[in-house]
Amino acid sequence: MVLAAVGQLCSTNNITSNLAQCKVLVQKAVAAGAKVLFLPEASDYIASSAEQSYSLAQSEERASFVSSLQRDAKEHNIHINVGIHEVASETRLKNSLIWIDDKGTITQNYQKVHLFDVDIKDGPVLKESASVQPGQQIPRPFETPIGRVGLSICFDLRFPEMSLALRRQNAEIITYPSAFTVPTGKAHWEPLLRARAIETQSYVIAAAQAGPHNEKRRSYGHSVIINPWGEVVAKLGDEHQEPKIATADIDLDLVAKVRREMPLLRRTDLYPEI
Q1: Which residue in the list 22, 112, 128, 172 is annotated as catalytic?
Q2: Catalytic hit among 41, 128, 172, 244
Q3: What whole-number distance in Å separates Cα of residue 7 and Cα of residue 2?
Q4: How far is residue 102 from each of residues 42, 72, 84, 110, 199, measured CA to CA in Å?
Q5: Exactly one of 94, 128, 154, 244 is catalytic; which is it?
Q6: Contact 110, 102 (CB under 8 A)
Q7: Is residue 222 within 8 Å of residue 185, measured between CB atoms?
Q8: Active-site residue flag, 74
Q9: Which of 69, 78, 186, 204 could bond 226 through an S-S bridge, CB–CB 3.0 to 4.6 Å?
Q10: Distance (Å, rounded) from C-alpha 227 to C-alpha 248?
Q11: 189 sits in which H/E element
């Protein structure tokens, strides 16, 4: 078994401050003996407008955010999975999830496929597609110190087709770094995460933003690690005063046991294979 750490912070439009929070999480993960640290969606920043977001994505501070985490990964011999923004075009961004290995190299880059367009009664109106370009592919799961990881982001959680596609390619861990709103978090966060773990018989690791990012937006928190039987094995609350981690051992023998003892034999003669 290998220890994984899931981190929680409250990103704002101050990239330097956000980097400092991430560095605290790296230190905590290293001190705990974790081999991989999972950080939330948009760890680099959460802006108060699309215009500000585009400007920040092009900034020197944003470039330094990534390069600094690359140095930390190499110095501390830890893998880091972190959500960031990247420029896609003259008007749109990418909501990206990168994997930095223990040599400090970016080895994987997933661009969020499902974008968050909602109008919540008495809550925020969010239209991610207005400023973000959707991804066009699901990267294959890849080998890591904790097992084969499949990448997805936040709103992807609501589409079981994606996690099933990753499972079919033998993913053992599926990520959901997120910045869930409070109303949707209270209603659906843990039930959806547990469902994805149970139906794919995989570990689910969901690093979450928590607390108020600006006057318009607040995130639910409750970072979590769930095992392939659907049990919560590590969990944080909605704390945002300081960055925190939770840790859990990733037991690939348990993954194999669950899949062996509860075989899911799909009737692809009756419905399409995903």
Answers
A1: 112
A2: 41
A3: 17
A4: 21, 9, 18, 18, 31
A5: 154
A6: no
A7: yes
A8: no
A9: 204
A10: 9
A11: helix 182-200
DSSP secondary structure, 73-93, as one string: HHHHT-EEEEEEEEE-SSS-E
112 in active site: yes
Model confidence band, residue 205 (pLDDT cutoffs 50, 70, 90): very high
Strand partners, 216: none
Q: How many whole angstroms separate alpha carbon 53 and alpha carbon 49? A: 6
Tens-digit pLDDT profile for residues 239-259: 899 999 999 999 999 999 999
Q: Is the dihedral of CA 200, 250, 144, 159 positive or negative?
A: positive
- Mind listing the pLDDT tens digit for each residue in 102-154? 999 999 999 999 998 877 677 667 789 889 999 999 999 999 999 999 999 99
With CA atoms as reference, report the closest residue to 87 among 148, 38, 149, 44: 44
Q: Which of the four pLDDT bands, split at 50, 70 and 90, describes residue 159?
A: very high
Q: Based on the residue annotation, tell me whether 10 is a catalytic residue of this protein.
A: no
Q: Report how far Cα 37 is from the mean position of its chain's Cα atoms.
A: 11
